[in-house]
Structure formats: structure tokens, C-alpha cells
Design brief:
The protein has 7 helices and 16 strands. The chain is of the alpha+beta class.
Length: 354
């Protein structure tokens, strides 16, 4: 819980999907994955930050991990896409921030990699930086994210529970007309389906009419994009980690299914929405098949359970970003109100979802 006492989706009794979450119901259920935030709140108009996702806490440039990026809608400023999809690997942590701070954050991430022991001769770095536009609440033109904020997010990264809601890169975001933010969730497949873990973290900042487990929350509350209440601007970044041993082609296939999880929430991928899924595997080794002398990656025919897992985890991560976010007042007196928990529970009961 946050100090405000706001719950996660499961805390109100909401159960989503058929696969069980991991112990933390977080992207950090994937072994070795760490997450850190730096939140920047100053005065009446600065509401932004940085969120860092580390596939492992070693030197990622020296120990790259398999990766891919799926573009749902390309109205965005994600840095590093072409090399990831060309080579099928990432060599830096993944950082999330606001749109106009991408350049500074990328530069700070390059500096971080160059200063790691063993990287003294490195002369080319492909930083991975995603963004959404938090300009409704944040003085985005002020470009208040500095290199020290990036360093703080990276240094604070841990493998434990992940803080959610109005924090880090989610400090100034808005989703479905409510306060958006950072959310996370995970799924663990049973052993007969591989026993793999899939973890998802989202930065939610987009339009649409909120649905939770099929219940029309946004419509019932009176927040409906079909009434022209919201702009068609907005974006989402989905970061996915898994310990399944996958090549970059199957990682990209898995990342694409996260868009189905977003759609379950009422997400519409509007015209000016930059929608990206960044995915990595922490298992760069090949797995052992039934023959102890034959080793192989997860095959195509074994991918469907992983597809199912990422859809469910993405959906729940979005809900957690909303449930955990608190009301934020920011630039020019703009206010993004938190999702009303009691009203949401009433509607979920009405539609037999609780």
C-alpha cells in the first residue's frame, strides 16, 4: 500500500485471468530484474520523473540480454528501437520518462554505461529510453529531468516490491481521464507448461473508456472518450521481462500480445498515441529438452501459454497503475483525479465481477 492506503486490483478481491501471479505480482518476480524510480515534484508545475528497469544488475553492455521492441502505434520518441530489432538484444537498462526529456535521459544513460568498470574502451552505446507526454500536469517544456535524476533511479533499483501509481515516470501521467502512472503484474506458468515467469510494467498515459474485467467503469462513472471528453493524444510503454529462453523473433511475437491485454482495459491506441512494448529475456542460455544431450530454446508450438500470460499481466498492470495512483494537481491548476475506489467496487459488484 501507499501511505494514502490505496489498494492494488487484487486487494479489492479482483481476480483476473486463469494464470497465477508470482509472489510479488510484479515484473521483479522474474529473477534478477530490478526496478527503481526517481520522482520530481517541485512547486505547482513540476510533476515528472524517471523509472529504470534493469534486466540484471551487472554490466548490461558486457552481458547483453535477448530483446525485441514491438510498435503498436509509432507516434512516439522511443530511443534505441532500430538496433534492438536488428541485433535482437539490449545493452543498457530501460529508462522511462517524459517526451521532452528523452534526449537528456539517453545522454545520462550513455554516461552511466561508459563509466561502468570494464567499459573503458566502449565507443558505441545504444540506450533504450521510452516516454509518454505528461504535459497536462507537468511543465514539460522546462525539461526538469537531469542526469542526477537518472543516476538516482538507476541506483535505487531493487529486486523487491515495485512502487506503483503516481511515481517516477508515472508522476504526471493521465489514463482514461483518471490519474495514470506506473503499474506492474506477473504471471507464472505451471510446470507442465514450462514453469516460466512473465512480468510486465506499464507507464499509462492514454485515452479510451475504462473497462475492468469487462465492466464498463468509465461509462458508468461518466468518463467516456466517445463523448469527446478527452484528447486523442496519449501513449503507453509496456516493459516485459521473462525467464523463458526465447530468441528475438519469439520475443517480438510475445511483445505484440501485450496490445491485446491493453485492449481489454478499453485502450484504443489513438492517432497521436505512441504505443510500444519493450521485451527482454533474462535467460540467455538454452534450455534442456527431454534429451539431456539436446538443448534448445522455447519452440513456436510452446508459445501460446506465454501469450496468454503476457495478456493477463498487461491487463492487470494497467489496473494497478490506476488503483495505486493518487490525485495530482499540477501545471496551470490542472487536476488528474484518482480512480474512485468505492465507486469502482460498486460497479464491479453490479456487473458480478467481485
Amino acid at each position: 500500500m501507499e501511505k494514502s492506503g490505496r489498494p492494488r486490483a487484487r486487494d479489492i478481491g479482483l481476480t483476473l485471468g486463469v494464470n497465477a501471479p508470482g509472489p510479488l505480482n510484479s515484473i521483479t518476480d522474474v529473477p534478477n530484474v530490478a526496478v527503481g524510480h526517481e520522482t520530481i515534484i517541485r512547486g505547482d508545475s513540476v510533476r515528472t520523473g524517471v523509472t529504470a528497469i534493469l534486466p540484471h544488475q551487472g554490466n548490461l553492455f558486457a552481458e547483453k540480454v535477448p530483446a525485441a521492441i514491438f510498435v503498436g502505434n509509432g507516434f512516439g520518441k522511443l530511443v534505441g528501437l532500430s538496433q534492438v530489432n536488428e541485433l535482437g538484444e539490449i545493452e543498457t537498462p530501460i529508462l522511462l520518462t517524459n517526451t521532452l526529456s528523452v534526449g537528456r535521459v539517453a545522454d545520462a544513460l550513455v554516461d552511466y554505461i561508459l563509466t561502468l568498470p570494464g567499459n573503458e574502451e566502449v565507443s558505441s552505446v545504444n540506450p533504450i529510453v521510452g516516454e509518454t507526454n505528461d504535459g497536462f500536469l507537468n511543465d514539460i517544456r522546462g525539461k526538469h529531468v537531469k542526469s542526477e535524476h537518472v543516476t538516482a533511479a538507476l541506483r535505487s533499483a531493487s529486486t523487491g516490491p515495485v512502487e506503483e501509481g503516481s511515481i517516477g515516470a508515472g508522476t504526471g501521467t493521465v489514463a482514461f481521464g483518471f490519474k495514470g502512472g506506473i503499474g506492474t503484474s506477473s504471471r507464472q506458468l505451471p510446470q507442465d507448461l514450462g514453469g516460466y515467469t512473465v512480468g510486465v510494467l506499464v507507464q499509462t498515459n492514454f485515452d479510451g473508456t475504462l473497462m475492468i474485467s469487462g465492466a464498463p467503469i468509465g461509462t458508468e462513472i461518466g468518463r467516456s472518450s466517445s463523448k469527446g471528453q478527452f484528447s486523442d493524444r496519449g501513449s503507453v510503454v509496456v516493459v516485459i521481462g521473462t525467464d523463458a529462453c526465447l530468441n528475438s523473433r519469439n520475443l517480438r511475437r510475445l511483445a505484440a500480445r501485450s496490445m491485446l491485454g491493453l485492449a481489454r482495459t478499453g485502450f484504443i491506441s489513438a492517432n497521436e498515441s505512441g504505443d510500444y512494448s519493450i521485451i527482454f529475456s533474462t535467460n540467455s542460455r538454452v534450455t534442456t529438452s527431454s534429451s539431456e544431450h539436446q538443448i534448445e530454446q522455447v519452440r513456436n508450438e510452446a508459445m501460446t501459454p506465454l501469450f496468454h500470460a503476457v495478456i493477463e499481466a498487461t491487463e492487470e498492470a494497467v489496473y494497478n497503475s490506476l488503483f495505486r495512483a493518487s490525485t495530482v494537481k499540477g501545471r496551470d491548476g490542472h487536476v488528474a483525479e484518482a480512480l474512485p475506489i468505492d465507486e469502482t467496487c460498486r460497479i464491479l459488484h453490479k456487473y458480478n465481477r467481485l
